């Protein structure tokens, strides 16, 4: 085991987290449980580590772990370093978060008004539908970023053979060409160490309300899958700028897990 927890009571930023489990979707609203699950999304933890992270009594954390286990959200196994203690891990996936504080006020009519029936752009209606669904959910404080990210990863796996190339520069050129051909936006390579991609006219977020947070979880998932296949190692696509943050483009840093130079 590496790393130890830090003490302190949790300060969650969401009211409810939704997790998918083999037995169905589970809503987790208790702040201590959400804090525990947030830690387990990063890595496995021992009981003692979770006590420190939660900043609560052992008996309290034990009850929460029992309930989460019964709900099918987490599991446990003996610690390989010490069989007398347990290591806890997630068995469910975070699907979405719901928070009244994150509701946005934005008129859906504006999106429908921007669409012109009879447009010769075959993708116009689908972009309208995608944005309207996103904004409708945002109006209710529902954030589907985890689910969108996983969907993007699936798309990226399917897309990879169409853009694959052993050389990174040519690989990026193929991705940019695919984006433009399918009216997804315009991609530029802005740096190589680290590899930085800029996306203009991003189909996912160009018309979304400004919330101050990145909104391109779907794109991030696609790029993560593409570059993970390209480098043969888990790779992150971290969005540092976005139209929803007030910029005129989206910016992604491509980072290979474990460091190392991208070629």
From TrEMBL:
Check the record and name the SUPFAM superfamilies matching this protein.
Answer: Ligand-binding domain in the NO signalling and Golgi transport, Winged helix' DNA-binding domain
The record's section on SMART domains has:
HTH_ARSR, V4R
Q: Which residues form the HTH arsR-type domain?
A: 23-113
Alphabetized Gene3D superfamilies for the sequence = Trafficking protein particle complex subunit 3 (3.30.1380.20), Winged helix-like DNA-binding domain superfamily/Winged helix DNA-binding domain (1.10.10.10)
Source superkingdom = Archaea
Signal peptide from the UniProt entry: none
From start to end residue, where is composition biased (Basic residues)?
Answer: 1-11
A Pfam family that this protein carries is: V4R
Question: What range(s) does the 4-vinyl reductase 4VR domain occupy?
Answer: 194-256
Stretches for region Disordered: 1-24
**Which InterPro entries is this protein grouped with?**
ArsR-like_HTH (IPR011991), HTH_ArsR_DNA-bd_dom (IPR001845), NO_sig/Golgi_transp_ligand-bd (IPR024096), V4R (IPR004096), WH-like_DNA-bd_sf (IPR036388), WH_DNA-bd_sf (IPR036390)
Q: Which PANTHER family match?
A: ARSR FAMILY TRANSCRIPTIONAL REGULATOR, DNA-DIRECTED RNA POLYMERASE SUBUNIT I
Q: What is this protein called?
A: Helix-turn-helix domain-containing protein
Q: What is the lineage of its organism?
A: Archaea, Methanobacteriati, Methanobacteriota, Stenosarchaea group, Methanomicrobia
């Amino acid at each position: 085991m590496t790393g130890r927890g830090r003490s302190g009571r949790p300060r969650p930023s969401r009211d409810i987290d939704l997790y998918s489990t083999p037995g169905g979707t589970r809503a987790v609203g208790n702040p201590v449980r959400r804090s525990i699950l947030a830690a387990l999304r990063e890595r496995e933890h021992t009981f003692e580590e979770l006590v420190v992270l939660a900043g609560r009594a052992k008996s309290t954390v034990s009850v929460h772990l029992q309930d989460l286990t019964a709900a099918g959200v987490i599991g446990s196994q003996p610690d390989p370093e010490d069989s007398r203690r347990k290591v806890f891990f997630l068995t469910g996936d975070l699907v979405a978060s719901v928070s009244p504080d994150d509701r946005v006020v934005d008129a859906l009519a504006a999106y429908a008004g921007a669409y012109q029936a009879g447009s010769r752009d075959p993708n116009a209606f689908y972009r309208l539908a995608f944005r309207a669904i996103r904004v409708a959910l945002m109006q209710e404080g529902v954030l589907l970023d985890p689910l969108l990210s996983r969907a993007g990863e699936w798309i990226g796996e399917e897309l990879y053979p169409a853009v694959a190339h052993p050389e990174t520069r040519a690989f990026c050129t193929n991705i940019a060409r695919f984006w433009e051909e399918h009216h997804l936006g315009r991609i530029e390579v802005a740096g190589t160490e680290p590899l930085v991609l800029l996306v203009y006219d991003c189909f996912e977020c160009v018309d979304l309300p400004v919330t101050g947070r990145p909104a391109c979880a779907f794109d991030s998932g696609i790029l993560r899958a593409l570059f993970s296949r390209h480098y043969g190692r888990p790779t992150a696509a971290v969005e540092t700028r976005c139209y929803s943050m007030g910029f005129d483009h989206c910016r992604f840093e491509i980072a290979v897990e474990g460091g190392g130079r991208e070629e």
